[in-house]
Amino acid sequence: MTVLYLEDFTPGQRFAGGTRIRIESERAKAFAAEFDPQPFHLDEGAASVSIFRGLAASGWHTAAVTMRLLVETEFQPAGGIVGAGFEELRWPTPVRPGDELRVEGEVLEVRPSKSRPEQGVVKMRTSTFNQWGEAVQVSVGNLIVQRRPS
């Protein structure tokens, strides 16, 4: 894959991944047990009477899967995918065991850094979808990207 510098990005540019990751029940429960041990992520019975009406993977599990999927797209910024923070992070639809997730990204804004001339910021919307095309995570984040060496 080609490494992209700040100058290679333009607003409206899109990146999609062909890779899909299937969410397995046991892996979702193991993630939740370690990082988000709430009953609706761990136990089918408790989940059935929760707001989710069934077992739901942790949003943080979805975020970790999204990162993995994003790394496998053509979105290959120089210096790696280095986050400077999120302006938005939503989980509009719960992720269920058996869901197959895929990711798409869109560049919203590109701006050189005023204080660090060797880098800039790419604002990007990253959307994660299940197998039915429903958005399960939407984020808008600012990423630090290196400028092309002179």
Automatic annotation (TrEMBL):
Transmembrane residue ranges: none
Record-annotated MaoC-like domain positions: 11-119
Pfam annotation, one family: MaoC_dehydratas
Matching Gene3D superfamilies: Hotdog Thioesterase
CDD domains membership: YdeM
Organism, as annotated: Rugamonas brunnea
Full protein name: MaoC family dehydratase
